[in-house]
Amino acid sequence: MRLRKFWGWGYDDELLSSEEENNIDQRIAKTFQLDQVERIEIPKISDIDINKPLFSTPSSLKKILSDDKLERLNHAYGKSFPDSARSILGDFSSPPDYVAFPDTQNEITSILDWASENNIAVIPYGGGSSVCGGVETNVGSDYAGVISLDMKNINSILEIDKTSRTALIEGGILGPNLEAQLKEHDLTMRHYPQSFEFSSLGGWIATRSGGHYATLYTHIDDFVESLRMITPSGSFETRRLPGSGAGPSPDRFAIGSEGIMGVITEASMRLQNRPTFRSSCTVEFINYEDALKALRLISQSGLFPSNCRLLDANEALFNGAGDGKGHLLILAFESADHDKKASLERALEIAKDNKGNFEVPSQDSQAHRSGSSGTWRNSFIKAPYLRESFTRRGIIQDTFETSITWDKSKAFIQAVKDDTSKAILEITGKPSLVTCRITHSYPDGLAPYFTFGAYATPSTMIDTWKEIKCATNEICVSKGGTVTHHHAVGRDHRPNGYDIQRDDLFSKVLIEAKAALDPKGIMNPGVLIDPKSKTITNWMS
Known about the structure:
The chain folds into 2 domains: 48-274 and 502-541, Uridine Diphospho-n-acetylenolpyruvylglucosamine Reductase, domain 3, CATH 3.30.465.10; 277-488, FAD-linked oxidase, cap domain/gating helix (Vanillyl-alcohol Oxidase, Chain A, domain 3). 32% of the residues lie in helices and 18% in strands. The protein has helices spanning 18-32, 69-74, 81-88, 105-117, 175-183, 201-207, 250-254, 288-299, 313-318, 341-353, 371-391, 409-428, 461-478, 494-501, 504-517; strands spanning 65-66, 98-100, 120-125, 145-150, 157-161, 166-170, 187-188, 224-231, 234-237, 263-270, 272-273, 277-285, 307-311, 327-335, 396-401, 404-405, 434-441, 445-454. The strands form 4 sheets. Strands 12, 13, 14, 15, 16, 17 and 18 form a 7-stranded antiparallel sheet that branches. Strands 5-6-10-8-9 form a 5-stranded antiparallel sheet. Strand 8 (224-231) and strand 9 form a beta hairpin. The mean pLDDT is 94.
C-alpha cells in the first residue's frame, strides 16, 4: 500500500530526480544571485515528537477513532505553502488528538453528538488538499481537543440515473475513483481541479472548487442537483430537482460552507456523456491587450470552449510552453455528441481578427496532451511537486487567484502584478517576477491566477509568506476583486481579505446560521467566520 507524504504533496515514493533537484538549485541560485542554496532534509516520522491525545475516547467510538502517529501527522495540515513548510520543519505542535474514520453516516452523527457534548472541535477532511488553511487543526485553547473526521470510507456511488444523467454519490469519494466508476457507464462529471487525485466530492462542494472547464462548467456549483448534510443539530436533505424557485436555495447554502455547518455526506450530481470529439489550438499574441480582447469576445460568443486559458508571456515561458515573447491562448473544444471543428474555427476567426497567430488546428482526440497545450498541462499537474522542492530550500513559490469584470480587467491585472512585486520587494529585499494566467472566463468577467516566487530562508520563510499573503489578500480586495475565485477561504484568506470583503450584515446572518446548526461551535472553528462565544486562534494573525 502506497503511503502519502505527511510533509508534502503526493505519495512518499514520488520524489524529484537528482537531476531535477540540481536544476532547481541552479535556478534558485541564478534568480536570487546566491552562492549556495540551503536544503532541508526530508523529515522522518521517527524524528518528530507529538503530544499525546488530550482526551479519552468513549468505548462506542473506539473502533473508528485512531491515534496512530502517521495518521495524526497526515491530518494536521492541508497542502498550502505554509502547511508544507511547517511539516518539512517538523512543526506539529497542534495535531488532531484523534482521526475518525466513520464507515456510515450514522457514525458521523455519533461523532458529532459526542463532540458537541464534550466540547471537541471537529474538522471535516476529504482528501486534505486544502491550500488555504481549511483543515488546520490548531483551533486554540477553548476546546478540549480536536478530531479530524476523515471521509475516505464513505465513498460509493449509490445510484446512477442514466435517463436524467445524474448519480447519487457519497462525499468521501476521491476524484480518480469517482471517474473510474462513472466510466463503466460511459459517463463523466468532467470536474478536474488540480487536486483531482487527492480531493473528494464532499470537499469540492464544501469549498466551491473550480475544475478544468474554463467556461460554462467552471465551479462545482453547476453540477450539484441535491445534497445531504449532517450537522450537530441534525441532518437536512434537499430535493433532487433540475431547478426550483422555492425560496433561498438550501443547496447554495451548503455549497461553499467549508465544513463550518456540518459534513456533506452525499450529493446527486449532474453528469455528462464522455467526450469523443475534440479540437484544439494554441494562439499567440504579441500584444496582451489584443489577447484579452480576443478572450473576452470568445467568452461572450456562446461557443463555450472547454479550455480557454490565457498565459502571459512570462507564465508561458516559466511553464515551458512559450519563448517569453508572446502571450498564449490555449483553446480546446470537446463534445460527446458532435464534431467541434466549426466551433474551434469560429473561435480562431475571433482570435485572428484580434491579431492572434496560430498554426493549423489539431483534430486529434489527444491534441490537448500535445504541443504548447500539452506542455502547459504537464507543468500544471507537476506544479505541486516542484513547489515542495522550493519549500525545502526556503524559497516561496506560490499562487493566488481572484476574479474581476471585463471592464476593469486590463488595469486590474497590471495593478495586481505591480503591487504584488512592490510588496515582495519591500518584504524580502529582493525583486520577484509575478506572472498571470487566466484560468476561467465568463461573459461578464474572468479569473486571473497569479504566480510568484519570493526569496526567503528556511528560518524566515513562514513569517515571510504570512506577510506576502496578507498583502496579496488586501491587494485583490482593495482593487475590487475577490480574495479567492476557487481556492476557498479557509483561515488563510480571512486576514485583510474575506473579513473585509464580506458584508457586515451577511456576517451576522452567517454567524447566526452556524449557531443554529452548530450550537456549540465545534465544526471547523475559525474557517470563514468565528463561532459565537469562542476565542479562535488563527495562526495567520
